[in-house]
Amino acid sequence: MVAVNSSLACAFMRLLKLLLCMLLIAAAAARAEAPRILVLGDSISAAYGMELEQGWVHLLQQRLQLEGYPHRVVNASISGETTAGGLARLPELLQTHAPDVVILELGGNDGLRGLAMRETRDNLARMIALSRQENARVVLLGMKLPPNYGPVYTEAFERIFVELGARPGVTGVPFLLDGVALEPGLMQADGIHPTSRAQPQLLDNAWPALLHQLERTHDPVMHSSGD
């Protein structure tokens, strides 16, 4: 009887281990198959000056979960990133993560450094085209420059985001820092980066455009004939 009980106990433990392995495999497969949102940005999205968990991109992942969306957010943002750097990194990111949606938050450093406007526009346009070719929809988060750059330069810079944000498969946000940039206590001492208190507002600014794309991620992809 003792031998029989011992044999049954061993068989039960083997079955339990098998079930546990199957559950772990199923959970890993579910994570791997979760649709992804790729955020490609600069210090604004890299949570500069604060913990990553305080940044708007991390808050985005939390909101998606609360709203019942299965998407996993991949934050590929780097402080100091330019549109040229983003364009160089994007093809590998698209192949690695196969995102349903790409959020582009780039261009601010180009403008602050006075880089050629045409280059900034072309880089963003190429990133949009690459994303669309991989069947990803795009959210383009716009930036504005301080007034000391002059009206001609600042207005031309803002038009880049307005024009590209109107392309097929793209939803634009004219100014990610709307309601933040001029508010006391919501900008860090450098006057460029938002504080941790401002991060929920950044998310609120980006959320409607992202929601618009999430509702359309299974629509047929329309490719623009432009650059």
TrEMBL record:
Coiled-coil spans in chain: none
One of the Pfam families matching this protein, by short name: Lipase_GDSL_2
Keywords: Signal
Signal peptide: 1-32
CDD domains for this protein: Lysophospholipase_L1_like
SUPFAM superfamilies assigned to the protein according to its UniProt record, in alphabetical order: SGNH hydrolase
Residue span(s) of domain SGNH hydrolase-type esterase: 39-197
InterPro entries linked: Ester_Hydrolysis_Enzymes (IPR051532), SGNH_hydro (IPR013830), SGNH_hydro_sf (IPR036514)
Gene3D superfamilies: SGNH hydrolase (3.40.50.1110)
GO molecular function, one term: phosphatidylcholine lysophospholipase activity
PANTHER family, per database record: THIOESTERASE 1/PROTEASE 1/LYSOPHOSPHOLIPASE L1, THIOESTERASE 1_PROTEASE 1_LYSOPHOSPHOLIPASE L1
Protein name: Acyl-CoA thioesterase
Organism this protein belongs to: Thiohalobacter thiocyanaticus
Taxonomic lineage from the root: Bacteria, Pseudomonadati, Pseudomonadota, Gammaproteobacteria, Thiohalobacterales
